[in-house]
Specification:
By secondary structure, this protein is an alpha+beta fold. It contains 8 helices and 23 strands.
Amino acid sequence: MKFIKTTLLLAVVAFLAAACGNDNKDDVQMTNGVALSVVGNAFMSEDDAQGITLNVLMAFAPSKDETIELVLAGNEGDIVRLDHKTLTFKAGQKEATVKVLSNAKHALSVPRIITLTVGHTSNPQIKAADEGVKITVKPDSDIPALTPAQLQLIAGYQQKYGFDLTSLLGKVAVEATVLFNTEDKESYFNGEPQKTFKGFSIITLSEKATADTPVLKMVDNPMGLTSFFYDVLKRKTVEDTEFFLQQPYGSAIVQAIQYDASKEQFSMTLDSIRLVPSTGKVEFLVQQPDIYDDMITALPFVYRFSAWERVKELRDKGATVYVKENGKLVGYQVTDEFLKAGGSIDPKRWLALSDVSRDTFGKTPSNWIEPKGHFDFSKGTMTFVFPWDFDAANDYEQVRVTYTMHK
């Protein structure tokens, strides 16, 4: 259908050109129509580097150099740009192309329709032949599409609470700072007192959201901490040549799965982030079992580590791995008991082990901080503070996180 419309439009333009004849002197008195059309697809993702190409066609070639400005409407937040918004048509030239490119703001959580029209021209007789073209810019390709039901909930929050939740959805800028306790600073983190991580989290509306309670789910890089958690996990397991790889079960598992640091993948998600509109607080803690099946208060991080997935496959198949004992190789079936005895690289076994609702270390001075979350749509921020630890940590590390909403 788009091809047919474009063909008809070009036919009209051609007719105008024919009606004007070949005498370029007439272009002073007669309107020279300018038609815009899309070459190929009229949609792109915000992280698309290719952009959308537009064709700009005059009804007849001007007798002298002329300029045409193109105007973007619906581009609040500067989502896209034109590779050149002013086109120069040389004498005798009637056709040009321009590209619409993403500014990679990662600001969209719902599609945005942007209209391109002909604006100011150097000659008042050069005018738009149509109402322009519309293109659709979608959220980044890795951002989950919101369902009609989710969009209805978001509209309800706007009406009930007066805030636009989409400014917290999609790819949201995050900055996380981890303050290390004194002992861990020296033992694990090269004497650095803290580390700061800047990046993006991908946030969507959780399936747990209701008409009264917005609930968010961070589906990628929750709290901005994925790279930090992965670094600690590797340091405690597959890259720990001092302890983990020196004990037979750990070494056997790493060899059995043919661990390859260059090919492994690690990701995290975090659900159940509940916004409380009446107070501006964010509730983000749950009750869940620890590695000993005791219930603790924790952040419900869910991890996926490709190396651990292969270990679970060995366990599910009842595979045998070989451990060197007294100079001989002894076969052991991979079971939960075998893994608990020293072969596990399960992230849950190594990361965020302690209750965060109270000080379980009991040191003086204490490094425990009360977990808190807060959101403020007028300031455009969502913040968190919470304690965090890992296997054999000497005390809690303190985590402070700030999300900056889309404008």
